[in-house]
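The instructor's notes for this session suggest beginning with a concrete chain rather than abstract definitions. Hand out the sequence below and ask the class to guess, before any prediction is shown, which regions might be ordered.
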Amino acid sequence: MPTFLVNHKSGQLKMQQMIFMIIAVFIFFTLVFLIYASMNLSSLKREARDSQTEKVAGMVVKLASTPEFNFNNQPSSVDIDKLMVLKDKKVYAQFLGIDGAIIEKIYPTSKGIECTETNYPECDIIRMFTKEDIAKNFASSAFVAWCRKVTVEGRSYNKCELARMVIEARNITGA
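After discussion, reveal the predicted structure:
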């Protein structure tokens, strides 16, 4: 066999080996990049969810401080008498920038009775602007004081109990 054919086949074999090696290196770095990108993406999603949770938790505190909700300018306290009046007013949901709110008395022990005009104040849950259980959706909660004025034997005093306020907010990411 002539030597130029042997050298040609040997050179062709070396070129094929080099091409396979380049492809293998390219596939290796592509896999490394995909793993790196997926780890960063999951981290980014977690940070976005945490940021969104913090924003909604801040909105709970802010909402409890609005004049429509607040009780006697006390921090993180809600006036249940006011909430009963605003309960079904959908216009306030748009004004406040929320999709719904649930305030549930948790101490003393809640019986799980939803507040209506007929059973108030012997109830534990006020659903505002929503009929569904928003705690199942993305929502955030914070503890607030469940307060109202009580009159006993002609004397009026403030009665406050521990409650959890859950809100579902729209457009909290600024989008």
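Then share the key points. The helical segments are 3-64, 80-86, 90-96. The mean pLDDT is 81.
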